[in-house]
Amino acid sequence: MKLTKVFLASTALAFAAGAVAAEDMTIVSWGGAYSESQQKAYHEPYMAKTGVNIINDESSNEAVAKLRAMNEAGNVTWDVVDVVAADAMRLCDEGLAMEIDPDTQLAPAPDGTSAADDFGDLLVSDCFIPQIVYSTTFGYRTDMVGDNPPDDICDVFDLETYPGKRSLEKRPINNVEWALICDGVPADEVYDVLETPEGQDRALAKLDTIKDQVIWWSAGADTPQLLADGEVVMGSTYNGRLFSLIVEQGQPVDMLWDYQVFDLDGWIIPAGLSEERKKRALDYIYFATDTQRLADQAKYISYGPARKSSAPLVGKHEELGIEMAPHMPTDPANSKTAVLYNFEFWADYRDDLDAKFQAWLAK
Amino acid sequence: MSELKGSGQQTSDAPTPEDAFHEAATLASREQTHAPGATPDGPVLAADGTPLKRSLNRALRMQKIRALGLIAPLLIFVLLTFIAPIADMLFRSVENQIVAETLPETVEVLADWDSDSGEPPSEAVYQAFYVDMFLAQEQKLHTRLGSRLNYEQTGMSSMFRKSGRRVGKFDTDTYTDQFTALDPSWEDPASWVAMMDNKANRAALPFTARSWDRWVAYLESEGDDPAKEDIEDFLFTTLYLDLVETGGSGTADARITSAGAATGDFETVSLTEQFADADKDWVDPEIWRVIKAFAPKYTSGYFLNAVDMQKTPDGIEARPENQQIYLMLFKRTMFMSLVITFSCILLGYPVAWILANLPSRTANLLMILVLLPFWTSLLVRTSAWKVMLQQQGVINDTLVWLGLVADDARLVMINNQFGTIVAMTHILLPFMILPLYSVMQTIPPTYLRAAKSLGATNWTAFWRVYFPQSVPGIGAGSVLVFILAIGYYITPEIVGGNTGTFISNRIAYHISSSLNWGLGAALGSILLAVVMLLYWVYDKIVGIDNVKLG
């Protein structure tokens, strides 16, 4: 009898200990200002509400490779991971992320619209819950362009009017689309042209015209630094980086929104979690992607919320007190010519075009 | 000893080196047989009576085991954490089981298809492919296979993704409806379990039996009971195909034989058309050529790709010129690593010489200056070079201020090979200075003085006396710097622009971005092989004994 009691007590203890440890949740994100905005908009209210302890991991950069390694080792230590949509598709294809049903596993909008309708076209993968819309767009030095500031994407290719170096991302994505548009291809035919080898050569030929004036970047912080130092007259990067360069640091830089490319960043849940952890991760996702929470994040960073219902709730910057709406890539004035990243196309052509692009670069 | 002398004198009056060798040999043999305690005609015995040789061997063995036990932790650690992962990673460069594992039926039927025919494969291939695809999409394996094959043929990723969604909605429910119209019990999964337990039934329905087994294995892995799950359309399809083939003969099951008699009038579904509907590229022979070419469990495809070649129907040939990049990157990596190694020698040698010849107090202070950058974050140092070298950077600003360079013609010193060489030489310099310093410290300064006192000029004394003794340090430093340099990728990525990147940048891309680990592993294996080859060449020319790390 006594022995049984001891047994029971120790089992209960072990269970309690397990339960306490299980209250930790590891959320992976990009770090920096972006993680900060998530901490304030999502993590802190969630921890206050549920008592779950959220551990931040800043590994989103190499999330795809790490998740694959974890999955192969059979020990997934992450609960929720923040990735860009293209990576989410890759993870979903590889069976490394779990499928999430927006209608049953996500919060509906306040007016009762289902999550699937509220996110609309932005649900680009079965495993991916978008959080923000960001864009890759151009910034230019206002003091280096005279009194004729660029307002057209093709000004990037115009070395005569805007001499000086430009910075572009060291990958084909976005660059080849801009090149074709400026080579006279209508925006809605860009991908039809890019599917053909001739179209790809045409895009590279257009890029060739500015190749020796381009500094190629691979980290999002490069272009802001190059602009701040006056190394380049214009350069592409993520709009949030330019926002902090212009508004927070007050550099003589302005936005060139023409043909900005929307991309999505959001959550996935790794495949192969235990039932208990999966439940907790889903509970977090349900909380963190509701209408109010997505609008809250925009108080801290200039990325547009992915839900339609969140847009009217976007307010002022928490510290600077300025209206955030005009700085959002999704603002109607900014997004007249905006295009959405073509996930399907790039999932197929990324490897092939990247090989060609790198070979072209190295020439 | 007297015996030894005698034997020496017997052979010759003037001893030669060979004599000494013979003497030593005789001595050894005599010592063995005439050791103390030897019995005249038996083996030498130890105190406990066992032969001395055995007892000695045992003691030695014990010693060896003990020594092995001492190094075992390290050995196991190295094996588990270093050798095994590397071997596993390198193995991926040839491993290719995913195609045969995901599409076992298709691969088998496809073997009979002539890939040079220019015609899409027969209906039988599409039937097998339908079963494979259905099971693969249930297990979410089809997109994985699609990603794998997309490395070989652009577009296959989305073909598999799209078709996976479509394959459950194919018109094959026609078969299901016709069978259940014949006998409603066909819908009952429990009856299938019983039917598939019978050997004769299985022999009569081979394709169905194989597909059933895979289906059951999948359900069980999910924790589902095959006797309770609905029978899917694909099983009715295989059932129909088997019955058309064999007529259901050889079985006593009345349900099968009666269905076998009825299948002649069944409405049929062309799976070729179904797949063509899902994506028109499924009737493109090129797609099937790729699947067939990559069906074997091991492939040379990754290695071929890593040296800018590819498999085509006409055998192996070079990739189109606008896709060739790896060989050029390998050459560039080698060339630049050599340049970096030489600039490290040029810059490091005088520093190490000064360090070795100063009083130890000043030397230690200078040593800290050498080590200081070593202790600073790699990224900080690399970024510092950016600030120094860029066109609006410190060096250019100074040159413009001095009037040496016009303001509109600032030097381009970064985002090219020059930037990479400068930054990497700086980062790797301590690896050259440290071994050089430790070797130079052991060279007695008296040698130089002796040389000079014998009339050598400064240069001769240095070149003939000092330099040869410092060569082991140069060797050690060069090996270290060179091997570290060819594996670098952060620094070239940041300051290399497009002409200063290394092969490691592509390896990093394939490991962490494109997830093409096979190609990454192939590139890594080639790099490893090249390093080992160079090491071997180095050993042949300089001799690895001449390397001194301290």
TrEMBL record, chain A:
Keywords: Signal
Annotated signal sequence range: 1-21
Superkingdom of the organism of origin: Bacteria
SUPFAM superfamilies, sorted: Periplasmic binding protein-like II (SSF53850)
InterPro entries for this protein: SBP
PANTHER family: ABC TRANSPORTER SUBSTRATE-BINDING PROTEIN (PTHR30222:SF2), SPERMIDINE/PUTRESCINE-BINDING PERIPLASMIC PROTEIN (PTHR30222)
Protein name, per record: Extracellular solute-binding protein
Native organism: Thalassovita aquimarina
Lineage: Bacteria, Pseudomonadati, Pseudomonadota, Alphaproteobacteria, Rhodobacterales
Automatic annotation (TrEMBL), chain B:
Subcellular location(s) of the protein: Cell membrane
Membrane topology recorded in Swiss-Prot or TrEMBL: Multi-pass membrane protein
InterPro entries to which the protein is assigned, alphabetical: MetI-like, MetI-like_sf
Domain ABC transmembrane type-1 per the UniProt entry, residue ranges: 330-538
CDD domains named in the record: TM_PBP2
Transmembrane segments: 65-87, 335-356, 362-380, 418-437, 471-490, 515-538
One matching Pfam family: BPD_transp_1
Coiled-coil ranges (or none): none
Protein name, per record: ABC transporter permease
Family classification: Belongs to the binding-protein-dependent transport system permease family. CysTW subfamily.
Stretches for region Disordered: 1-49
Keyword Transport set for record: yes
Family annotation (SUPFAM superfamilies): MetI-like
Organism, as annotated: Thalassovita aquimarina
Key words of the record: Cell membrane, Membrane, Transmembrane, Transmembrane helix, Transport
